[in-house]
Amino acid sequence: MGILRAGSTDPLEASADETLPTVNLASPAGHSANKYLGPNAPEPGFLRRMLPGFPWHKLPNWLTYVRCLAIPAMVVLFYLPDQHVATSVVFGVASFTDWLDGYLARLWDITSPFGAFLDPVADKLMVSTALVLLAGRYGKTVAIPASIILAREIAVSALREWMAQRGQRDSVKVGYQGKVKAALTMAALTVLLAVPEGTTEGALAQLHQPSLIMLFLSAVITVTSGSVYFRAAAPVLFGEG
Prior knowledge:
The chain is mainly α. The protein contains eight helices and no strands.
């Protein structure tokens, strides 16, 4: 959410073939729809024109709040009988909002200090909660990759904080491998949460092994992506930069 570079296509726009009327920013409707968005935000699409008074600039933060609220909901559903699909859906939808809120913030060229703080925190809380829940259910099979993923998150978060104090945070910003790791971890956990407990019958039960393979692969990428950050920070860590 903290990235300010805007995209070029608004997901709320009408179809590309539709000719959209020009919005006069001096008018009440146009002013309400755009005054809180960044200078690089595209013209309002269909929904933003239909609901000019809606606080669209707050939507990315609201999606982050939804992700936070999904954590206790996921915990409750996890321990209720026969709610594995509902648990998976809650986690999967919350994971999707992780991409969506950042996309909208970049597209509309908006950011907020609180949103920039809460967005990565909500992601880590959600993923770590799911890992702890599943490690409790499956034991060492999940506990091993979970411990690797959580240890890396703690180490990299501490590294970023230390580098930020020295004005070097950009050298350890999230890279491509980190994004792949996050997406793969969330996908693996979404699938594993959908597996019913105590049975090997049914289509969902057959997803147990594939989801574990995905989780272990995520742990491998976790290590390799973490090493990239520490190599980038090495000159500062060892007083060479």
